[in-house]
Design goal:
The chain folds into 2 domains: 3-149, no CATH class; 155-297, no CATH class. Helix content is 44%, strand content 24%. The chain has 10 helices and 11 strands. The chain has helices at residues 3-10, 19-36, 74-89, 99-120, 128-149, 201-215, 248-257, 272-275, 279-282, 286-297, and strands at 37-42, 49-54, 66-67, 155-165, 168-183, 186-194, 221-225, 229-233, 240-244, 263-266, 283-285. The strands form 3 sheets. The chain has a 6-stranded mixed beta sheet with strand order 4-5-6-7-10-11, with helices on both faces. Strands 1-2-3 form a 3-stranded antiparallel beta sheet. Helix 1 (3-10) runs antiparallel to helix 2 and helix 4 runs antiparallel to helix 5. The longest helix has 22 residues, at 99-120. It is globular and about 65 Å long.
């Protein structure tokens, strides 16, 4: 399959109606890049990040940063993807101490999503906003499919919250959410699913505050992010590095002074999220949501 064919396939959402569609596309993309890249560029400041450069057929476009510690190659993914589906189906009873299960969950999820994002980076430069929107929409859908696969019904949609004044509902406030998990007509979890926290982290904290204030409940609010890195140019031509898009000060401020979120999950977690106070207690890798936390939320 050519890059042009891959891009054409990636922009058609009907190709991603189930997990098989996501896995199939990833297999095709990984097979393509194994032999058809112009170059693989190593990040100058965090060397485990790579940038794929396409050849003439892709206008020599350079992709988003790819974490080589998480991204499978074609051979690795062919094996891991089979285990991935099996693990998801039985994840509720997974061995919490088995690091290999956690690795397959995180790396497979990351590899599948980045194969879509990197393929869409092959669109002409003038269509970068289209690529960004499609990538984000597919990530939201992908995470919901994963949650369905582990046996939990979920949806996206609008929640109408009545505003009560003097015991009477005066009007409704509408909230659009990426993830809604219900049980017995009771909303158990509300979630935000984004490829990055950039320009979004404030809203997630505020949404929790307002929703729980208006409903007089303590409904868990979570966030699922793919990563928080972007490409940056260095002083030398044709050399690239990465910038973080995560705002630790904002995150800590909202956590301490407004309200903490009930779970924040990354496939590609930043080093400071593992070491800094507050961050290390609030942010986890994606496997923790599937193996442990989500089951507590729906009890």
């Amino acid at each position: 399959m050519t890059l042009k064919q891959l891009v054409k396939q990636a922009i058609m959402k009907d190709n991603f109606t189930d997990l098989k569609g996501f896995i199939s596309f990833c297999n095709e993309y990984l097979a393509f890049i194994s032999n058809n890249l112009q170059a693989v560029i190593i990040s100058q400041n965090e060397n485990h990040y790579r940038f794929y450069q396409y050849d003439k057929s892709g206008n020599y476009q350079i992709t988003r940063p790819i974490n080589s510690n998480l991204m499978y190659d074609a051979k690795e993914f062919a094996k891991a993807s089979k285990e991935y589906v099996k693990i998801l189906k039985r994840v509720k009873n997974a061995d919490k101490k088995d690091d290999s299960i956690r690795e397959i969950i995180n790396n497979s999820t990351y590899t599948i999503q980045q194969s879509i994002g990197a393929a869409l980076d092959g669109l002409p430069a003038g269509k970068s906003n289209t690529a960004r929107k499609l990538t984000g929409d597919l990530f939201e859908h992908f995470i919901r499919l994963i949650i369905h696969e582990i046996g939990i019904a979920c949806r996206t949609g609008v929640i109408q919250v009545p505003v009560i004044v003097d015991g009477q509902a005066q009007f409704n406030m509408s909230y659009q959410h990426d993830l809604i998990i219900e049980k017995d007509d009771d909303i158990k979890v509300i979630g935000s699913i984004k490829t990055s926290s950039k320009d979004r982290i404030d809203k997630i904290f505020i949404d929790k505050f307002l929703y729980n204030k208006l409903t007089e409940k303590d409904t868990p609010h979570i966030a699922v992010f793919l990563n928080d890195v972007q490409r940056k140019n260095t002083k030398k031509e044709n050399e690239y590095g990465i910038n973080t898009t995560f705002l630790p000060g904002h995150f800590k401020g909202y956590t301490v002074k407004l309200n903490p979120l009930d779970g924040v999950y990354y496939c590609d977690i930043r080093p400071n999220m593992k070491t800094e106070n507050i961050l290390k207690d609030q942010i986890k890798t994606f496997d923790h949501l599937l193996i442990e936390d989500i089951w507590k939320f729906i009890e």
